[in-house]
Amino acid sequence: MTKTVDLVQRHGEHLSVIASESGVELLRYVYRAEDAWEAPKPYIHPLRTLSGQVVTGYRPNDHRWHKGLQMTASHLSGANLWGGNSYVHGEGYLALPERVGSMAHAGFDEVSVHDGGARFAERLTWHPRSGELWAEETRRIEVHDVDAVTGSWALTWSSAVTNRRGEPLRFGSPTTHGRPNAGYTGLFWRGPRAFRDGRIIGPDGEGPEMMGRQAPWLAYGGEYDEADGHATLVFVHSPENDHSGAGGAHPAHWFVRDSPYAAVAPSLAFHRELVLDPGATLTRRYRVLVADGAWDREHIASAVGGLSW
User: What is 5-305's CATH topology?
Assistant: First the structure.
């Protein structure tokens, strides 16, 4: 097997994964600290297709804290590790900077390139605004299955979050706090402005009706500005996530919008809170297929069915 990607690190700033053959930067993982109001945390932007088209948005004027693909916690035991205004039932979104926390980069345990792709493993710490240690996270991001024939590549994101607070951590969302259809928290993708009114596809449904539903995967397709063509992103639960809750895990539900902007999140706590006991670890793994072209449901289902974990 030949090398498919290269990895370049700018220390203290970011990592870039670059397609070896074309020179396209497939992703940039930014881990430097940013503005406190935006709940500083690492993020991926830009995220690109093999043809070089950007499929993430960054600091849009409607939500400056939306940054590509990132792990978030919109409501965490009263803290906001999402960024910006905090939702308060009966009052709406309020500027409460004392609630806005952070997920801080603590170091990399691995940064490597191999025949099948690239991987990096990171340690992070989660904090409320006051700075106490609430959680430690080990995160692993892998780039693999770079395939010029299908015009796609895969990103696998694994996170293990351990409660270090000494009391339960309560993961919630605006919906668990009273706002309907706003259950965003956890891994969150913000699409580029051109992807507004794109196509939402699930295994057995499509469009905005997928909001708040359960499914092993969800796809979003959009059309570019400037360049001709489309892209499809497929977000997939790893089998061990037990997304349905049938095996005893806290069930996951999809947060998805095509208007007023494109966004997808396999929410950790859409309808009800997830409680993480002291010393316990919450582990989740997701895969994102990044593809050139407008994939239909049959194509998506075939690609998902062929995944190995």
Answer: Beta-galactosidase; Chain A, domain 5 (2.70.98)
